[in-house]
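note to self: dont lose this again. the chain is below, predicted strucutre after it. 277 aa total, dont forget to put it in the shared folder this time
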Amino acid sequence: MELTEEQCDALVKRAHISLGSRGFEIHPFKIGWYNEHVQEVFRLSYPADTLGLLVISTPDMFERAFIPFVKEQEECDGIRDPIDQCVAYYFNKVKEDFPEYEVESIHDYEMHHSRRPKILVQTVGHVSGAVYYYQKSDVTDQPWPTDKKICGVCYHPVYGGWFGLRGVLIFKDVLCPPLQQPLPKDVIPSQEKRVELLNKFNFHWQDWTFRDLLPVRQRYSQEQIMYFSTKPKDRPELIQRIKSTGTLLGDDADQVQYQDKGHSVDSSETNDSVIPK
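---
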């Protein structure tokens, strides 16, 4: 089904209504934009004009989507990853809101049997204009050995590193030829700052300082920091606390420190996409 520009806009707005109030951002893209910038093995088998929606979690997602999900859904027991369960739940809600279309969801963590990612969400983030994907190739005078692997990292123009690329929704039977590709905002034009960002992300990611390289409008809340600073094996206890009290905050709230103990760093270590500059 080929949509006009107005129809495409209306579809995206409907998706935003489903997810926006829960702390998610929606960014439309064409499958062709993505396929042009990844190796053949990562390409998606849809026409170039097929509509996709990138879903990003903002700092508000934890309080607006995750905590209500934990409190209301019995199947959220903390054994399976609760964040993944939560995002999958809201992806399915979008599918239910669009019964007239065939919608496929691909989550950021999904792999093929060969352990190859089903989609490179960093590339989607860049080609959709949602975030800028900074890579080793963005540094002209590189301080690293030529054979040193440096993983890229996405940076949000509003939230810096305080966000998550959660996956995509592909409208398999929808073509949007009029959709225009936006350019991502290069918020870190300085070569020195790019080196600092990549070094912080690759070698000091557990202290989260890469997220605050530039001033940001909003960070994760104390409650969210507490959750992600807890080792995954200890998170079921936090899930039960949310279920019983509705919060994680207690007398020790002021003692929470940024230390990642198992949170996705929101940028896969598979850097097989090439974003031309």
